[in-house]
Amino acid sequence: MIAYLFWHRPGAGVDAARYEARLAAFHAALAVPSRAERVRGAPWMAGDGYLDWYFLPDWTALGALNRAAVSGAAEGPHAAVAGLAGWGAGGVVALLAGDRAFQTVWRWLSKPDGMTYAAFAAALPAGGTLWQRQMVLGPQPEFALAGDGAEGVRTRHELVCGQATG
After folding, report:
1. What is the CATH number of domain 2-165?
2. What whole-number distance in Å separates Cα of residue 118 and Cα of residue 35?
């Protein structure tokens, strides 16, 4: 499984409740499993905002999502929320362990220089959810870890996602 991530925040002066309502309408119009989360403290966002997750079986489905987001039933809701956005950046992650269940706290990690991927994975706690950034498409560090044992992992980036919107 892969997920397309879209980090975004409303434009200056845009009411958060209005933005969230339009964001929820867009997610409801898509025929793709997805969720939106509030995000506080991600240094690559330069402010608070939102993280959308669009769950896809493979890379081919990413192309279908790209087309579906701006056409058909989703076209109007996409235009409505996009018109209120002030910044956004996307990326793709692959699920390495665990499941796609909502998590309130993520630790965004970078593999230490000189460490192999196998050694890095072995050093992480078992039982959590682990996603890995693909192709350096997004602004976030390379790995996202949540769930069992994740609170014991030391990192420079701890991201509180808050609650799901919509």
Report:
1. 3.30.70
2. 30
Amino acid identity at 5: L
Burial class (CB in 10 A: 0-12, 13-18, 19+), 158: middle
The predicted pLDDT at position 155 comes to 67
Mean pLDDT by 10 residues, the chain (166 residues): 95 96 97 92 87 96 96 97 94 91 83 92 88 82 76 65 57
Structure tokens given for 156: 């420079």
Distance of CA 97 to the CA centre of its chain: 16
Find tokens 């209005």 and name the residue: 18
- Residue 159: its H or E element: strand 157-160
Burial readout 108-146 (b: 16 or more C-beta within 10 A, e: otherwise): bbebeeeeeeeebeeebeeebbbbbbeeeebbbbbbbbb
Give pTM, 2 decimals: 0.83
Cβ neighbours of residue 52 closer than 8 Å, sequence gap 6 or more: 4, 5, 6, 8, 23, 27, 34, 35, 36, 37
